[in-house]
Design a protein that fits this description.
Layout lengths: L1 H27 L3 H23 L8 H18 L8 E11 L1 H6 L11 E10 L2 E10 L2 E11 L4 E5 L8 E4 H4 L2 H19 L5 H16 L5 E10 L2 E12 L1 H16 L2 H4 L8 H10 L13 E7 L5 E8 L2 E10 L2 E9 L4 E6 L4 E8 L2 E13 L4 E7 L14 E8 L4 E7 L2 E14 L12 E2 L3 H9 L4 H9 L4 H8 L3
Parallel strand pairs: 6-20
Antiparallel strand pairs: 1-2, 1-19, 2-3, 3-4, 4-5, 5-6, 7-8, 8-9, 9-10, 10-11, 11-12, 12-13, 13-14, 14-15, 15-16, 16-17, 17-18, 18-19
Amino acid sequence: MNKLLEKMKPILCKAKAAFEKVKSLLINMKHKKLIAGIGAGVLVLAIALIILLSGMQSAPLTPAQQYIKLETDLLHKLVNSIPDEVPEVVPVQSIDILPGDALLSLLGMEDAQWAERLSVKLVAKQKEGLQESLWDFKLNGNDLFSATTIADPVSGITYLVVPSVSEHYLKIDKNTAGTEDGSEIIGSASAVTDFLAMLNISEADVAKSIINKYIDVFFSHMTEVEKASQVLNLGNKTQTADVYTNYITEKVFTDAFRSVLTEARNDVALKAVFPADMDYEDVIDTMLSNLNEEPTNDREDAIVLKLYVDSENRLLGRDLLLPDMTASCITVTDENGTAFKISYSGEDMGYEFMIDGEGKGTLSMVQPDQTVILANLTYSGTKESGICEITLSDFFENLIFQDTNVDPKLEIKWNTNSPMSFGFSMNGERFVTINTSSSTMEGPHDSITIPEASLDYNVPEEYDQYLQSIDWTILRTNMLEAGVPENIVNFLLGKE
């Protein structure tokens, strides 16, 4: 307002000077009545101008308008954070398994020094819709065997070859090898993969622009919003939050989706994403015609989204409430750190993981009539060091090890630069330690091809042929050279 008045000041000064000249002229002409009339008119004009300028101040936003701005800003920030170009790299994962005395004793292998370390290295490649995994197994640093799998997620078929055992590829069709339910899941995943593969999205900025546009279109219809203040408590920490509760009723969703479809029907940029032979407008018209013309606005059956922000509109957490499921993620921060809780609950049972921001936390199972602590944990480390250590004690003691003398403990150490270590002990004796690390190989890498010939696991005759082709000679030699006793090799592979 002050800036506007500053801009108008020169104009008002000039108007005043002009008025003074006219006034002087009229006085000389002794037209006093006319002067009085003009003076009154200017006064009325000035009052009207003041009222107009004061009315230009913005009216306060409604809770729905505040929520829409917050939610769309947060979603835009998330979308825009996606990198425009992802370098073509190949992830490499290494795992070392170190059996402890407790495990070796359980297996009757107290003196098995040869079982000191089992190492697995995985190089995973992905190109043109195919996935290739190269596996390398070592025992105490000595080669055991390598294997390669080539997977086609769309068809659900995987090809396996272990060169040191058989020259043949074994074809495994997950759609027939698994259960009917598993096949349905694979089929659904394949349908999503097929849909994404058919889209013509080559430029990241185009995709971001389209996504951001329809975020705005959809959320502009969020009208059933309430705002309240709530004190969040986690551990010893408290923080006051503004809570926006968005009820997405059938009517709200239908109106929002209808608006999205209507806008999309004539969206040239969005249409260009879909295949040219697709009847784009007809598909959208069909979807529009299937929308309920008289949706209800009943909050009882609504999808509920809750958004928690602090006094500066920084995100503190979210809730998703469905009729039979609730998911929540909340953070509370003070000068000593941040407490964090993530929870999920269904109709009969739920789980909750909480850290108090001061070095302690719990993993719990939540039931309608009780909460069972599955594990207590302590943790240390800082974001600056990139190193974190976590110890889970009373690990499943209230379920698996209840009323026993077993004292299980899980220790986790990780470095954000890559290495991670899992150590599991029982009654103070090390059971097993698993060390992992990850890295990448720069691309581009060679294309992946499906083998021309293979033997089908699901065809009995072909699977028998594969079994008959197996030769354990190389693996037997490698195991003996790695220090595995001959009697154990014979037990695992059979005598020569």
